[in-house]
């Protein structure tokens, strides 16, 4: 018995000495001596260059194991302009040493991550740099796209790792009571579209409670997206699936305060947004429920999200009134993004419709319907900036389709069909009919012709001549877009006493092709023909003064049209013949054919000049 006591005493003494030696070793060891081995293991696992500036390790029975890592960086895919995929200023880990000894359980008191930065890039080969971590084939695809060789050490292919050997039951129990990340930055760069798109989320704070390798845990995230203040808040549940190398989110709520978005930050998404000329005053709340998302090395494998945008408002330089009451209901899956319903107001008018982006990670087929309802012209354009003050209510329907997220491909594949009309249209402070008659009165020898025409006018036109404005009964057109060209067809403008019709095309470089014609109502044409017999030569078969315009081809901003002289000559010849035309003009001028020569210094205007002066006065 005495020998047994001695043996036990010796064993416990040896164990105490061994534990003391281990404890002393751990207390005095400089973990930086193992830094090169640790870095080599990390590089072999992720297939990227890894660097660590400094590591510190300490142990005490009171505080447990404390590990600090400073200056951790992980390189990006070869050939990328952004050198690093990951940068972390400092990582601090505290482990309960006694729980590890007694229960073989890794109980982490806390993990603190300070100022991390992650740069996620979608390459021209349509591969995310996250997917190439430890994936040799994906890394080679990116390297080939960037015309650079794959660096050494080469990533370990996922196919070479037998996930079946992972037995969660053999892993030590791991529980992280508290995990926190502060002042983080996430950068997303998409080079698969041209020009490339960039989104920055800064001031990221993350809190995780009771993190586990097996069980669900709660997390919350706050950050500043496209702004300087935190405007994004996410809270939900997450779970890791080590066997399938996946992560799952569920019961997650997302809220984004759009009032904190900054214009300069928003413009970095893409140059196309510059064309919107946003003033920088907008607001709104984006809310979404992420019911489920499963993501892994192959990207997003499952997604179920529903949300809405409400109380939206934005000011745009080109609009007289802001966009208000912006509302949208949307949903997303791993393949499609659908806006089930959207609406917004411009002044008292409304725009509404629906949209869908199908297969957004690959083909990106988009469709959009736009409905215009009672959009007032004066609320769209500031009347002070227009050469002519116009009023009216716009109604219309349009269906638009396109493919791809690359702006160039999007425009090449863009197609659209629709029609629009202006109801209660009006040109303010200009009476077009009265103005035309006034201009006719200054054409020699038609002085005073307005009074003659007015005396023979139908009763309905006399009141029209006294109005200050020009009212339009109808303004309609159909629109078709295909092959980077917009076609305007069935353009029909009807007002009191006159009308216009047109067809044309305008490509995306604003090169315009326009065919148009002007016509005066039959009863008004008859009154004008009585007062000015020469105008009867311009009558068409319906008894209207009909004047086609010259076809215009050129820049839309420099558009000018004139009466078509070829048509006019043919019309005159068809109606009377050249000889009869000469007689009518001589009669109108009071110069019956005679043998008398004109007195010295007198010169009678020719018929060409009379008609020319009349047309110029109308269309000047």
Description:
With 620 residues, the protein is of the alpha+beta class. It is built from 14 helices and 24 strands. It has a 24-stranded mixed beta sheet that branches. Strand 12 and strand 13 form a beta hairpin. Helix 8 runs antiparallel to helix 14 and helix 9 packs across helix 11. The longest helix has 27 residues. The radius of gyration is 40 Å and the shape is elongated. 17% of the residues are buried. The N terminus is likely disordered.
Provide a brief overview of the structure.
The protein is about 25% helix and about 45% strand. The protein has about 625 residues and is an alpha+beta fold. The protein has a 24-stranded mixed β-sheet that branches.
Total of DSSP H or I helical runs spanning 4+ residues? 14
**What are the low-pLDDT stretches, counting only 5+ consecutive residues below 50?**
1-25, 150-165, 594-602
The major pleated sheet works out as: 24 strands, mixed
Helix percent reads: 10-25%
Protein structure class: alpha+beta
Rg from C-alpha positions?
40 Å
- Average pLDDT for all residues: 78
Q: Got a strand count?
A: 24
Query: Per the principal axes of the C-alpha atoms, what is the gross shape?
Result: elongated
Beta-strand share of residues: 35-45%
End-to-end distance: 128 Å
What tags apply to this protein structure?
14 helices; disordered N terminus
Task: Summarize the topology.
Layout: H1 2-28, H2 35-46, E1 50-51, E2 54-60, E3 64-75, E4 84-95, H3 97-103, E5 105-122, H4 136-145, E6 173-190, E7 197-212, E8 217-225, E9 232-241, E10 246-257, H5 263-267, E11 278-296, E12 299-316, E13 323-333, E14 337-346, E15 349-358, E16 365-376, H6 377-380, E17 390-403, H7 407-413, E18 415-427, H8 432-441, H9 449-455, H10 459-465, E19 470-482, E20 485-495, E21 498-507, E22 511-520, H11 522-531, E23 545-548, E24 552-555, H12 565-575, H13 578-588, H14 607-619
Parallel strand pairs: 5-6
Antiparallel strand pairs: 1-3, 2-3, 3-4, 4-5, 6-7, 7-8, 8-9, 9-10, 10-11, 11-12, 12-13, 13-14, 14-15, 15-16, 16-17, 17-18, 18-19, 19-20, 20-21, 21-22, 22-23, 22-24
Helix pairs in contact: 8-14, 9-11
């Amino acid at each position: 018995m005495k020998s047994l006591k001695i043996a036990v005493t010796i064993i416990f003494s040896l164990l105490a000495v061994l534990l003391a030696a281990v404890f002393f070793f751990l207390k005095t060891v400089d973990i930086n001596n193992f830094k090169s081995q640790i870095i080599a293991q990390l590089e072999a696992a992720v297939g990227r260059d890894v660097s660590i500036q400094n590591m510190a390790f300490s142990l005490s029975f009171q505080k447990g194991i404390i590990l600090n890592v400073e200056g951790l960086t992980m390189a990006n895919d070869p050939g990328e302009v952004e050198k690093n995929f990951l940068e972390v200023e400092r990582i601090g880990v505290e482990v309960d040493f006694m729980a590890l000894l007694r229960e073989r359980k890794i109980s982490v008191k806390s993990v603190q991550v300070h100022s991390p930065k992650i740069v996620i890039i979608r390459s021209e080969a349509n591969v995310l740099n996250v997917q190439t971590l430890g994936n040799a084939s994906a890394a080679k695809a990116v390297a080939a796209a960037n015309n650079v060789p794959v660096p050494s050490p080469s990533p370990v292919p996922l196919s070479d790792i037998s996930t079946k050997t992972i037995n969660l039951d053999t892993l030590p129990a791991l529980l992280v009571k508290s995990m926190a990340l502060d002042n983080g930055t996430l950068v997303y760069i998409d080079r698969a579209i041209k020009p490339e798109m960039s989104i920055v989320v800064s001031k990221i704070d993350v809190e995780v409670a009771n993190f586990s390798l097996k069980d669900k845990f709660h997390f919350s995230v706050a950050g500043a997206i496209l702004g300087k203040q935190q405007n994004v808040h996410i809270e939900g549940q997450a779970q890791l699936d080590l066997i399938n190398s996946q992560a799952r989110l569920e019961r997650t709520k997302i809220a984004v305060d759009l009032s904190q978005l900054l214009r300069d930050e928003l413009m970095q998404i893409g140059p196309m947004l510059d064309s919107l000329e946003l003033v920088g005053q907008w607001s709104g709340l984006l809310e979404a429920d992420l019911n489920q998302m499963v993501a892994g090395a192959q990207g997003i494998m499952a997604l179920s999200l529903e949300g809405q945008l409400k109380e939206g408002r934005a000011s745009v330089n080109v609009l007289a009134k802001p966009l208000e009451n912006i509302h949208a209901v949307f949903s997303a899956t791993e393949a499609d993004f659908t806006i089930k319903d959207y609406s917004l107001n411009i002044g008292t008018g409304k725009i509404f419709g629906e949209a869908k982006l199908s297969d957004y990670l690959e083909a990106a087929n988009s469709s959009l319907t736009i409905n215009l309802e009672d959009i007032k012209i004066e609320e769209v354009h500031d009347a002070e900036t227009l050469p002519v003050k116009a009023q009216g209510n716009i109604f219309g329907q349009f269906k638009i389709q396109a493919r791809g997220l690359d702006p160039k491909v999007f425009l090449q594949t863009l197609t659209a069909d629709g029609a629009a009309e202006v109801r209660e249209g009006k040109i303010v402070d200009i009476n077009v009919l009265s103005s035309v008659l006034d201009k006719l009165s200054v054409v020699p020898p038609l002085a005073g012709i307005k009074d003659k025409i007015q005396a023979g006018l139908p009763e309905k036109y006399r009141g029209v001549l006294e109005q200050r404005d020009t009212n339009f009964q109808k303004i309609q057109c159909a629109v078709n877009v295909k092959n980077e060209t917009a076609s305007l067809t069935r353009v029909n403008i009807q007002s009191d006493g006159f009308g216009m019709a047109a067809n044309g095309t305008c490509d995306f470089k604003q090169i315009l092709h326009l065919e148009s014609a002007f016509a005066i109502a039959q009863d008004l044409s008859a009154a004008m023909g009585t007062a000015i017999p020469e105008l009867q030569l311009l009558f068409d078969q319906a008894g209207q003064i009909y004047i086609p315009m010259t076809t215009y081809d050129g820049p839309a901003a420099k558009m000018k049209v004139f009466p078509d002289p070829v048509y006019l000559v043919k019309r005159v010849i068809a109606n009377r013949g050249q000889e009869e035309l000469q007689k009518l003009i001589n009669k109108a001028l009071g110069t019956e054919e005679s043998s008398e020569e004109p007195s010295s210094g007198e010169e009678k205007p020719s018929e060409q000049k009379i008609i020319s002066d009349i047309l110029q006065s109308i269309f000047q």
